[in-house]
Amino acid sequence: MSTSSSYKDCPQVLRDYLFYLLTIKGRSSRTVDAYYTDLRTFFRFLIMHKNLCENEISFEKLPLQLVTLDILKSVTLSDAYEYLHYISSDRSNSPKTRSRKVSSLKSFFHYLCDKTHLIQHNPMAELEVPAVKKSLPKYLSLEQCLSLLQHIDGDYKERDYCIITFFLNCGMRLSELCGIDLTDIKEDTIKILGKGNKERIIYLNDACVDALKNYLTFRNTHKIDPQDRNALFLNRNGRRLGARRVEQIVDEQLKKAGLDRYGFSVHKLRHTAATMMYQYGNVDIRVLQEILGHSNLGTTQIYTHISNDQMEHAVQSTPLSHMKISKLDKKE
Prior knowledge:
Layout: H1 12-23, H2 29-49, H3 69-73, H4 77-89, H5 95-115, H6 142-150, H7 157-170, H8 174-178, E1 185-186, E2 189-193, E3 199-203, H9 206-219, H10 243-256, H11 266-281, H12 285-292, H13 297-300, H14 308-316
Antiparallel strand pairs: 1-2, 2-3
C-alpha cells in the first residue's frame, strides 16, 4: 500500500501516532498502513458528521487536516456508534472489518489519553468490539497438500517448491517468509522476525532442509542484485521477493494442481501447517503457540479444531455404538 511518506496528508496528531506505532511499538509498516486506512476513514466521517467541509466534496477527498485536536477532544461515544452504523450501512463493512476498525479507534484514543495526555477523557474506553462469527479455519487436506507439491512446475519450480514447503511445514506468516535472510539460516533452523519485531527460531524438518538445499543450488546459478544478496527468496531480477509476488506464486501453483476453486491462499497454508501439527503430530497447544509466533494462546486455539474423523471415532468408541435391535418383542 503506502510508505510512511503517505502520512503527509494527516494532521500532526495522527502522524505522530502512526510513527509511534512504527518506532516505539515496533509495528510493521503493513500493520501501520492498516491503522492509517482505518483512522483516515474515521477522520473523514468526523468531517462529514460535524459539517466541517462543503457537502460537494466526495468522501474520499475530504481533507484530513480539518480534524484538529479540539475536534478529537469533542468526540463522544455516540459519535463512535454513529460511525459504526455509517461503515455498516453506507460502506457495507463486514463485522470482521468493523471489529478491526473499533480496535484501531480504541488504540488511537488510548494513545491520546493515556500515552500523550492530549485529551483528558477517553470516549472509546467503553466502546465494545462487534461480535465476529468464529468459523473454523479453512485448510488443505493431506491429499491436497501432496497434490499441490507434486504439481509445482515452471522456470522457478525449485524456489516455488521451497516456498510452499516452508508454508506447509513451518506455518510461517507471509511477511516472515519474505523477510528471511541467508544469515538467518543455521543448519536446520531459521531465525524468524515476527509481529512486533519479536524473533523466534523455527526448526526445519527433512522436507524443508531438502527443499532449501535444492533451491540454494538453483539460486546460486542466477543473477543476484548486490543490494539483496543476503535475501533468501529472489525474483527473476535477483531482488528480494515481495509479498504480493509470493501470493501470486501460491495462486499459480494452486491452479496447476486444480485447487484454485477452493478459496485457498497463503494464509490457508499457514492454517494447514498448524492443523497438520496438531492433528497428526499431537503437538501441545503451547508448543504450537511458540511455533506460530502467537502472543496470545487464545489465538492459537482456533487451529485446534477437531477433524471429522476424530469426531466419528469419538462417537464410534462409545460401548453402546454396536448395540442393535435383534428382535422386537411382540405383545400377545
